[in-house]
């Protein structure tokens, strides 16, 4: 089993990327700096992707210049070698995240590539990360099903997890991209990944409604998962999914739940309240 305290990945990038109103770079930087004060383990803070596809993230290089390196690791999303080449040049970035979908339709929508081409991209990105001393996190998108009618079963997820492990990936996040997962699926798929790859850090990036968030969290915990993604106020979702967005796992709910289970390390609650207040002014 992984470490007892949970690893918390706060995902303001996921919250901001599909927000319909432009958020100025200075405001993004102020918000992210507040989140850095909270003490999350990882901050998913931006992405090096096409500005035409995700205009809200076009200012990521500018925003990053205003974020200090510190105990909270900075993670950025990349979708191809060009983005990865830019990202690895940022000295304060510790981690690159790559969305690899088990759904061919979503891989095309999200990264404009086939799964075969995505595997080639991923090998190149892994080499870049190794050369620059960056950690690579691969998100297995649509890991619990998809809304497009693409073929899906748990064996498909296991097959790609095996491939990524063979490629030397050390952190894998199972993504419930549009909130389709049942608690039973979360348990079974997460447990299989952890049991089959004890050297991997296996996390979950869950999207959920208010009705079943706790059951999904508990299912992942019971499976042995200790790495969890969330976003303040539960805002976010992938605008490329072409499906009604189900919000991110609500960070406030997660913290209360983990604290009750004594799985939460101490955080700066004053900074958290300030960040929550600022989130309410940004996402209105």
Provide an overview of this structure.
This protein is 42% helix and 17% strand. The longest helix is centred in the middle third of the chain and has 18 residues, at 115-132. It has 284 residues and is α/β, with parallel strands linked by helices. It has one domain (7-282): Alpha-Beta Barrel (TIM Barrel), CATH 3.20.20.70. The mean pLDDT is 93. Helix 2 runs antiparallel to helix 11 (269-282), helix 7 runs parallel beside helix 8 (183-196) and helix 8 runs parallel beside helix 9 (213-223). 48% of the residues are buried.
Number of structurally distinct domains: 1
CATH superfamily, please? Answer: Aldolase class I
The CATH architecture is: Alpha-Beta Barrel
- How can the largest sheet be summarized? 8 strands, parallel, barrel
What fraction, in percent, of the residue positions are helical?
Answer: 40-55%
CATH class: Alpha Beta
Continuous helix count:
11
Overall average pLDDT: 93
CATH topology: TIM Barrel
Task: Compute the number of strand runs.
Answer: 8
């Amino acid at each position: 089993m992984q470490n007892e305290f949970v690893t918390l990945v706060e995902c303001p990038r996921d919250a901001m990327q599909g927000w319909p109103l432009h958020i100025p770079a200075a405001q993004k930087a102020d918000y992210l700096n507040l989140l850095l004060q909270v003490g999350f383990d990882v901050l998913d803070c931006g992405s090096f992707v096409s500005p035409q596809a995700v205009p809200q993230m076009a200012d990521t290089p500018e925003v990053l210049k205003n974020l200090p390196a510190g105990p909270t690791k900075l993670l950025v999303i990349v979708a191809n070698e060009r983005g990865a080449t830019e990202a690895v040049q940022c000295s304060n970035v510790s981690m690159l995240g790559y969305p690899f979908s088990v759904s061919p339709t979503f891989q095309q929508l999200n990264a404009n590539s086939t799964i075969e081409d995505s595997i080639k991209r991923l090998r190149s990105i892994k080499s870049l990360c190794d050369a620059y001393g960056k950690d690579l996190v691969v998100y297995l998108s649509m890991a619990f099903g998809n809304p497009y009618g693409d073929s899906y079963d748990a064996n498909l997820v296991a097959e790609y997890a095996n491939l990524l492990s063979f490629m030397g990936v050390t952190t894998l996040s199972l993504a419930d991209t549009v909130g389709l997962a049942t608690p039973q699926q979360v348990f079974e798929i997460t447990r299989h990944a952890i049991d089959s790859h004890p050297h991997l850090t296996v996390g979950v990036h869950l999207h959920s409604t208010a009705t079943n968030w706790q059951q999904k969290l508990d299912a992942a915990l019971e499976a042995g998962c200790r790495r969890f993604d969330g976003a303040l106020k539960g805002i976010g979702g992938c605008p490329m999914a072409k499906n009604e967005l189900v919000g991110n796992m609500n960070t406030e709910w997660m913290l209360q739940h983990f604290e009750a289970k004594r799985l939460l390390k101490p955080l700066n609650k004053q900074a958290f309240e300030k960040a929550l207040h600022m989130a309410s002014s940004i996402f209105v």
